[in-house]
Amino acid sequence: MTNAALTGERPRTLAEKVWDKHLVAKGEDGTPDLIYIDLHLVHEVTSPQAFDGLRLAGRPLRRPDLTIATEDHNTPTLHIDRPIADVTSRTQIETLRSNCAEFGVRLHSLGDIEQGIVHVVGPQLGLTQPGITVVCGDSHTSTHGAFGAMAFGIGTSEVEHVMATQTLPLKPFKTMAITVEGTLRPGVSAKDIILAVIAKIGTGGGQGYVLEFRGSAIRSLSMEGRMTICNMSIEAGARAGMIAPDATTYEYLRGRAHAPSGADWDDAVAYWETLATDEGAGFDAEVVLDADALEPFVTWGTNPGQGVSLSDTVPNPETITDDNERAAAERALEYMDLAAGTPMKQIRVDTVFLGSCTNSRVEDLRAAAEIVKGRTLADGVRMLVVPGSARVRIEAEAEGLDKIFTDFGAEWRFAGCSMCLGMNPDQLAPGERCASTSNRNFEGRQGKGGRTHLVSPLVAAATAIRGTLSSPWDLAADLAAGATSHTASHTASHTASHTASNTASNGEK
Amino acid sequence: MQKFHAVTGIAVPLRRSNVDTDQIIPAVYLKRVTKTGFEDALFAAWRQDPEFVLNKPAYRGARVLVAGADFGTGSSREHAVWALRDYGFDVVLSPRFGDIFRGNSGKQGLLAGEISEADAETLWTVLESDPGLELTVDLVDRTVRVGDLTVSFEIDDYTRWRLLEGLDDIGLTLRDEARISEFESTREPWLPRTLPALSSPDVTP
Questions:
Q1: Which residues on B lie below 8 Å from A104 (Cβ)?
Q2: A440 lies within 8 A of chain B by CB
Q3: pLDDT at A322
Q4: Which residues form the Aconitase A/isopropylmalate dehydratase small subunit swivel domain (chain B) (predicted)?
């Protein structure tokens, strides 16, 4: 039963309801609407110039109680007890600290249990809630849409605008329904859904839209999986992705530090229950994806839309009809040093990165740990495991996941954005190839000249074992084919060479 | 912000689509805490290639960039706009922009004009045939003129008006301050607040 049916109002989508609820002033004669912002997340990279703007204009930060800051983009993932070695990084972190102190903003600094990637911190504190508006000077703010919030990334001018007014002038978005029906096979996960969606609609396909993900495959996902999907909405060009809240959402929120409690909880749930898209509400565009048919997905190129099933081959640009797309594909293959027709599974990697706001929550780490447990990292491959927040790290350690990863041969690091964008020392060397659970395979994103293949945590783990792009399906096939004897012969020398590095990384704790 | 009416200057043909903001300015340049001085960071990776279009002497001092579709996609970094401005660009023309980049441009006085794919191709051909050619971008009538050729571009009315008037967004919004306060008085009491600071219970192994 929908509330529109009860009240006789025009049926509305989830996005429209949240928009209408936050309308401070309706735009007239082509002017934008003025939208109230419930939660402003701040980090060190896109905020210093905004704080400066406030200072220059003599304006206060209007709602420190709706603002929260953390350190994530620049922070080192080793030696966090020492001063940050890179002077410009250190300056940026110190600038955030002094700005937050001056303007009264709560900051979770390096060393604080709630420090971590801004999009992991908001949900883990229970600040991200259904039906609210969330902004941050970071395009992956779309992550928070997993709760049925309207959440999107903004530029620094807009950061200053929200600081000064707690509002943003915005033109209404169009809406796009992305319906994913069916059941994911074991070994296929939320990351594969969103990579397949982006490959289908392209990196510009969502421009101007808010995406609403719906259907049985979405409903059956955990909050972590939903966050992975909404996180990468921006990679399809959409500023926001949303999923209607349900029992899974409420269960995740219940008992978190900033979640409502007592009678407030009941009032909140009553509001949240009204948010789902009404029956009969129209979308401006619709896309359908079949979850049953989905395979592990991986990118071959230099934008997130350049992806194929792992069982597929590197595409041939000559078969692309659009001139610009063909040129882009040719340039991508050159940059990635790949030949058309190469089976994706034959591509060897140098590095595996498990982390980023897309896939660094404890569930992601658990899924990968389950696969690598008792196995050995492939020869010549390094693996970085970077939890999304200090809390995730501690939770994972309480479960013994750190031990599983270090025994495997991976490096267990402190929380932050790390190798997703290489603003800290965690970077690829030129020409290095990486299977990465992050969100962008742009040229040089993970380090100048670095080559990125976007994958799920499950594919990352399987790839770390086999050394070539692989999924858990390949591990099962190896076992069936008795390939274990081959692996075993590697194991002895491997274990020895990795023991030294394990000890070193354990020593950082 | 300065008022923007028309610009006449050298235009650079950038025959690439999907120019994401990581290409416009790589992340290593985002550590600065200032809003200026990013000119060296613009297309930093590509500029190491001597053949890259911006390295050609004919395009020195350019003020207009003509790029392929999906310019400015990806990261929200406004540094991409600052870098273009600092380098000397006043205008970027493309068949389609990343949403956040387009918004950032309007707030920093960089004109992001949408042209058709066909017009992009035409402009590239004209500019490549005579490197260093100047063209005029007129915001008043939303046209690009070079020699006998005139093509039109799209920009939303509101952004155009703000650019023409050189208006500051925050100042405009604060004229509605009373309505913001009124809205705030109706917000539900259970909505999340970051203060006082709370933390979830500690994890026990």
A1: 195
A2: yes
A3: 87
A4: 1-115
Q: Which residues contact A323 (CB under 8 A, 6 or more apart)?
A: none
| A214 at B interface, C-beta within 8 A | no
Interface contact B76-A139, CB threshold 8 A: yes
In 3D, which of A381, A402, A371, A383 has the Cα closest to residue A490? A381
Q: Residue B201 falls within a domain, yes or no?
A: no
Query: Number of folded domains in chain B?
Result: 1
**pLDDT the model gives residue B118:** 97
| Domain annotation covers residue B203 | no
Q: Do A24 and B34 touch (CB under 8 A)?
A: no
Substitution target in B24, B33, B77 with the highest count of A β-carbons within 10 Å is B33
Shortest Cα distance, chain B CAs vs residue A444, angstroms: 8
A300-507 has which fold?
Aconitase; domain 3 (3.30.499)
Which amino acid appears at position B61 of this protein?
Answer: G
What CATH number is associated with residue B52? 3.20.19.10
With an 8 Å Cβ cutoff, is A330 touching chain B?
Answer: no
Rounded to a whole number of angstroms, the distance from the CA of A306 to the nearest CA of chain B is 11
Contact across the interface for B190 and A268, Cβ inside 8 Å = yes
Average pLDDT, chain A: 93
Instruction: Answer whether B188 sits within 8 Å of A124, measured CB to CB.
Output: no
Chain A: residue nearest B73 by CA?
A237
C-beta of residue B88 within 8 angstroms of C-beta of residue A127 = no
Domain boundaries, chain A: 14-289, 300-507
Whether A476 shows a pLDDT value over 60: the answer reads yes
pLDDT higher than 70, residue A25: yes
* B108 in contact with A, Cβ within 8 Å: yes
What 3 state SS string does chain B have? CCCCCEEEEEEEEECCCCCEHHHHCCHHHHHCCCCCCCHHHCCCCHHHCCCCHHHCHHHCCCCEEEECCCECECCCCCHHHHHHHHHCCCEEEECCECHHHHHHHHHCCCEEEECCHHHHHHHHHHHHHCCCCEEEEECCCCEEEECCEEEECECCHHHHHHHHHCCCHHHHHHCCHHHHHHHHHCCCCCCCCCCCCCCCCCCCC
End-to-end Cα separation, chain B, in angstroms:
55
Residue B198 pLDDT greater than 80, yes or no: yes
Output the pLDDT for position A113. 94
A121-125, B7-11, B32-36, B110-114, range with the lowest pLDDT: B32-36
Q: Which CATH number fits domain A14-289: 3.30.499.10, 2.160.20.10, 3.30.870.10, 3.30.1180.10?
A: 3.30.499.10
Residue B197 falls inside a structural domain: no
User: Containing domain of residue B13, as a range?
Assistant: 6-179
How large is the average pLDDT for residues B41-70?
97
Interchain contact, B23 vs A129, CB within 8 Å = no
Whether B95 contacts B115, CB under 8 Å? yes
